[in-house]
Write a structure and sequence with these properties.
Blueprint: E1 3-6, H1 8-12, H2 21-32, E2 38-44, H3 56-61, E3 71-76, H4 79-86, E4 93-99, H5 102-109, H6 113-129, E5 133-139, H7 152-164, E6 169-174, H8 181-194, E7 199-206, H9 211-219, E8 225-228, E9 245-246, H10 249-255, H11 264-277
């Protein structure tokens, strides 16, 4: 079964003009009607770091969760954020950004990779106690812009450490749009075979003309979990390329021939609403 994780949080977080709370909630409520496996809806991080998402708790309070099969995911960057998120029964998943790049880890969470791994262990324990599941995003999994040493073995080593912590979901994240079939295919092939108890997902940033080859390379090598955002909104500002955005949900859906169980009429409404917001 293909899992699509719709990521309005990723689409919104980089927008400087504050999107009103009721507008965010209305958009996410529309997405909840579509039937995505999971909606990555907000984050419990410092308002100074991401002011756009300072109202995540308020947004959550306005969500209609009675008539949806979708689960909710919130991003956290430290133990305090995880504690905050665990106060809400409605949240199913906590997402933590762990990086293959030491520089990016410092920029993103003000921690070294080793310190971040300690946080992962703390958050994993909190998740188990509070009936949540931890999703770890391995950012810069396909390369980084800092000139640091990169090798797939580094991704494998971190995956092994996460396996030891009994993390069950890892999203390999192409933070700056450098993934391609040559580096996607072997990474998914090797890791999925090596760690059968872990679900490896794909969080690709892409240009309009390379999305399909990326999806194909991951899917052909065992990946069935894909992050996306309607119209490809969002992405990493460090890419410094207006064409590099999130995987466009509507294009991702066209790749798969099987029925994904999505409500196409509600999806159309979501696409229309996204235009007015973004």
């Amino acid at each position: 079964m293909i899992k699509i994780i719709e990521c309005p949080r990723d689409a919104m977080q980089g927008i400087s003009e504050f999107i009103p709370t009721d507008v965010k909630a209305a958009y996410i409520n529309q997405l909840l009607k579509v039937g995505f496996d999971t909606v990555d809806f907000g984050s419990f991080v410092s308002p100074k770091a991401i002011p756009q998402l300072k109202d995540t708790a308020e947004v959550l309070g306005q969500l209609d969760l009675e008539n949806t099969t979708s689960k909710l995911l919130a991003i956290i960057a430290n133990t305090r954020g995880a504690v905050d998120a665990c106060n809400f029964e409605e949240i199913n998943y906590l997402g933590f950004p762990l990086s293959v790049s030491e520089q990016f880890q410092q920029r993103n969470t003000k921690k070294s990779i080793e310190q971040a791994l300690s946080t992962v262990e703390e958050v994993q324990n909190l998740s188990v106690k509070n009936n949540k599941e931890l999703v770890v995003y391995l950012s810069m999994a396909f390369g980084n812009p800092y000139g640091e040493h990169y090798h797939p073995d580094i991704v494998a080593e971190l995956s092994n450490k996460l396996n030891d912590l009994e993390v069950k979901t890892i999203a390999l994240s192409d933070t700056i749009g450098v993934s391609n079939p040559t580096n996607i295919a072997p990474l998914f092939d090797v890791l999925i075979k090596e760690y059968p108890t872990i679900e490896f997902g794909a969080h690709f940033h892409t240009t309009p003309d390379t999305w399909e080859e990326k999806v194909n390379a991951a899917y052909a090598n065992g990946c069935i979990r894909f992050d996306a955002a309607l119209k490809g909104f969002g992405g990493c500002p460090m890419a410094k390329d207006d064409l590099v955005g999130n995987m466009p949900t509507e294009k991702l859906i066209t790749y798969f021939t099987e029925d994904l169980g999505l409500n196409k009429e509600e999806l159309k409404k979501g696409l229309l609403l996204s235009k007015s917001i973004f």
